[in-house]
Design goal:
The chain has about 80 residues and is α+β, with helices and mostly antiparallel strands. It has helices at about 5-15, 30-40, 65-70, and strands spanning about 25, 45-50, 60. The protein has three helices and three strands. A three-stranded antiparallel beta sheet has the order 1-3-2. The longest helix has 11 residues, at about 5-15.
Length: about 80
């Protein structure tokens, strides 16, 4: 995982407090290609397509595999 991918995953989770699990973006966003790559590898998925609640953005979420890939520095604590 490269630094940009790690940053997107950590940002999505609200690291270091881990208080959320989402990243809103539209095509053309600086991180769009990174989000697509993370989805392609199963580390993120699309939680919701573009809609009014997200200001027209796609909502991406970190998968369990994404949390595991981050390791202890960014993974959510067990429930």
């Amino acid at each position: 995982m490269n630094e940009k991918e790690r940053h997107v995953l950590e940002h999505s989770l609200g690291w270091p407090k881990n208080y959320r699990n989402h990243f809103c973006a539209s095509e053309g966003h600086d991180d769009w290609e990174t989000l697509q790559a993370l989805c392609g590898r199963g580390l993120m998925s699309i939680g919701r397509g573009p809609g009014p609640l997200s200001g027209g953005d796609t909502v991406f979420i970190v998968t369990e595999a994404g949390k595991v890939a981050l390791g202890p520095s960014g993974a959510l604590p067990p429930p």
